[in-house]
Amino acid sequence: MPSRNTFPRAARIRASADFARVFDGARRTSAPELSLHWLRDGAPPRLGLAVSRKVDPTAVGRNRIKRQLREGFRQLRPGLAPGAYVVVARAPARTLDNAALRASFEALLRRAGALPPPDPTGTMAG
Question: What is the CATH classification number for the domain harbouring 21?
Answer without folding.
Answer: 3.30.230.10
